[in-house]
């Protein structure tokens, strides 16, 4: 027990045998970490600066990029310093902090991906109630949940690890995680089985909900080519990010539990850091390339303007009416054509036009379509309200 109480420093053995390659490894790692910062910061700044991107999907994307920076900050600085050092040690508090950051990053990513899948489910399967469901307050609470739940679970696990009596100080890895610290304990603790079991159960439930939402998404989108096109545009990046993170973590978990120590050290290290390299780089790249609004804003950020605005950015509204006394009619019975105005203003005018038609007018029409595509839809008389709301909802969301 005296020996157990004396352990305050851990030795990391993941870099053993790499003395000849440390400078090239340092350069590659530094470039990789720089790329992670540049790619994620561009997405974050673009979303924060552009008020048109202050929508649930983009807010969640922004938090996904922040999570990537948070998680990699727990690994790369320490790893870079180890590459320049002949001794690879970490203090007990530093080890717990590193484990907390890495574990919390994984949990936050999965929680955000869960909320993204639910957001897409409501947007595509129930577009008419999207803005009443995904309100700004509710999105804020969901984002808070995505950060607090993993932080709480990992904090409880870190506290139980901290109070353990340790009988060894050797960690066969590039960085600290609670699992390897728990294996150094002199005696097994029930809490160290219960807490991981609860955590795994919660995130398995996350995965089941994601699977359920995409089952209904795909079933709904198969009904029309337009919905399938929107699914491919907004949901495909989410599926790629989910698959990348899931596969990376699965490889690491399977190796931790069932892997052989006879594997080459380089392969062991790659499996251990794959989820700290691939998702933080590819997440912003995939979303930045696939989502048109984000891509256009990034192009404008670097001084390039997109000559053809996307249909989600601008609407064209034409309205003709002879409403005798419509309540609060902004059009006053005349013909209006409005292009190139911000989305929210056009939405308000479109709904006002629908209200005018619904008020009893027998002579009126609304043309609504994307300004860039030239497409339009005609709505007449009583059917205007429902169809217009559906069309506006779809254009607003995508």
């Amino acid at each position: 027990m005296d020996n157990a109480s004396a352990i305050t420093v851990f030795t990391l053995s993941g870099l053993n045998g790499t003395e000849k390659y440390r400078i090239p490894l340092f350069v590659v790692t530094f470039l990789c970490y720089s790329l992670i910062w540049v790619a994620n910061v561009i997405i974050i700044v673009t979303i924060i600066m552009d008020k048109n991107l202050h929508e649930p999907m983009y807010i969640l994307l922004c938090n996904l990029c922040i999570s990537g920076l948070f998680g990699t900050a727990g690994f790369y600085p320490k790893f870079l310093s180890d590459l320049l050092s002949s001794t690879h040690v970490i203090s007990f508090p530093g080890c717990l902090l590193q484990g907390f950051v890495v574990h919390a990053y994984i949990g936050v990513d999965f929680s955000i991906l869960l909320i993204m899948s639910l957001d897409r489910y409501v947007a595509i399967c129930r577009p008419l109630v999207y803005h009443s469901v995904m309100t700004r307050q509710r999105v804020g609470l969901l984002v808070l949940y995505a950060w607090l739940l993993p932080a709480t679970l990992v904090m409880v696990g870190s506290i139980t690890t901290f109070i353990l009596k340790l009988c060894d100080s050797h960690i066969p890895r590039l960085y600290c995680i609670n699992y390897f610290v728990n294996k150094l304990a002199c005696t097994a603790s029930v809490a160290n089985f219960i807490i991981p079991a609860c955590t795994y159960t919660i995130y398995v439930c996350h995965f089941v909900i994601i699977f359920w939402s995409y089952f209904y998404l795909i079933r709904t989108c198969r009904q029309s080519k337009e919905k399938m096109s929107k699914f491919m545009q907004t949901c495909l990046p989410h599926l790629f990010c989910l698959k990348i993170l899931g596969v990376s973590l699965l490889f690491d978990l399977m190796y931790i539990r069932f892997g052989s120590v006879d594997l080459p050290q380089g392969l062991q290290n790659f499996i251990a850091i794959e989820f700290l390299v691939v998702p933080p780089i590819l997440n912003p790249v995939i979303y930045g390339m696939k989502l048109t609004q984000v891509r256009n804003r990034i192009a404008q950020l670097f001084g390039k303007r997109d000559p053809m605005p996307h249909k989600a950015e601008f609407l064209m509204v034409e309205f003709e009416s002879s409403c005798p006394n419509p309540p609060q009619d902004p059009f006053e019975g005349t013909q209006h054509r409005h292009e190139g105005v911000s989305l929210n203003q056009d939405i308000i005018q479109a709904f006002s036009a629908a209200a005018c038609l619904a008020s009893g007018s027998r002579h009126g029409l609304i043309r609504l379509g994307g300004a860039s595509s030239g497409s339009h839809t005609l709505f007449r008389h009583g059917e205007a309200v429902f169809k217009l709301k559906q069309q506006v909802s779809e254009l607003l969301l995508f």
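The longest helix spans residues 92-125. The chain is about 65% helix and 5% strand.
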